[in-house]
Write a structure and sequence with these properties.
107 residues; alpha/beta; 2 helices; globular
Amino acid sequence: LFLGQRLSSGHLLIEFKHPGKPINRDAENQAVKYRDDLMPFLNQPIHILMLGKGRAAGVDPRSGPPSLVTTSYVDLISTARTQLDGLLRDLRDPKLPNVPTGSETQL
């Protein structure tokens, strides 16, 4: 388990499941119980991210707990890689102004 503060508001509770195990309704309910246990101490919304193999077959996300997102490690890494590639591409864009690095600035 990992609990972090979101930049926007509230907190994010991340539950790391085994990469080969699909996330079923019991696992979702366990994460909701963790959130319920933490709520009295934080007094802010807590969103849940569950990482595992992905959602188990037969678990309908529309009937899941509110503020809970389930994803696989593969999807998370793929999304992060796509975003990183986009950022790196933007940094190489010749239309952007040249931003000096720390070694290039003069006093």
